[in-house]
Amino acid sequence: MAYALVAVGYSLVFGILRLINFAHGSIFAFGSYMVFLFYSLGVPMIPAILIALVLSGLLAFGMDKITLEPLRKKNSETITYLITTVGVSFIIQNTLSVQYVFTSERQVFPSTNVFPPISIGNVTIQSSQLIMFVVALILLVILTLVVNKTKMGLAMRATEQNSKAAKLMGVNVNRVIAFTFFMGGASAAIAGALYSGYYQVVYPTMGYLIGLKAFAAAVVGGIGILYGSVVGGLVVGIGECLAAQYIGSNVRDPMAFVILIVILIIKPNGLFGKKGITKV
Hints:
Blueprint: H1 2-17, H2 24-40, H3 45-73, H4 78-96, E1 107-108, E2 118-120, E3 123-125, H5 127-149, H6 151-161, H7 163-168, H8 173-199, E4 201-202, H9 206-221, H10 226-246, H11 252-266
Helix pairs in contact: 1-5, 1-8, 1-9, 1-10, 2-3, 2-4, 2-8, 2-9, 3-4, 3-8, 5-6, 5-8, 6-8, 9-10, 9-11, 10-11
């Protein structure tokens, strides 16, 4: 479900813009650090998460306005957007590790275990795990309702189908895209807070590997399909755990990409992805 929380942000942006935001993992780390910062200043955990949610959303919004919107105005190639998001990712990651900001050292993050663990036979479930599971489902429902049941969601879907036609119908495409990035950044902050609260650690490069694995999870589920991200996260996460248990812990990290390759060979569009048809 940790992968699912991050993968939802990938799918949200890709589902509207057909763009892979490779800065999403670094925004995830930024969100964790914002929670860590405000909590260390005496702000209670939930308000700290809400502040981090807004700041991370604004960071993603600013990234779009400063780096991507000028590229859209010039009708740049898709590869230009990808390289730009990779560059932004490194900028965020290295800014977090600056000695006078947070340093590159690992910091102890407060635990999100709010009640004692639940034991069922030989299985023990931490409250932080349960919270992560519930929040991922709630976030999925909220984002699905926003996309499918609101006026902004209608504008988002119109932009995804045909941005030029949406403009002609009076849709402010740049505003829709900025809103999409804000939502993606906010969801990354929620994921970062819960992930750090479970492992009780935060560090500048924490978004790199989980970002790649969450991207794999999004593709496995069918990138652009929000509920597919949750299923993909579960498939990748459970696959990793089984591999670590029965093969060895050294294969845990590569297993996400083994699963990705196998799924793409069997079903190139992912488990719930649909074939795109382009009229020429």
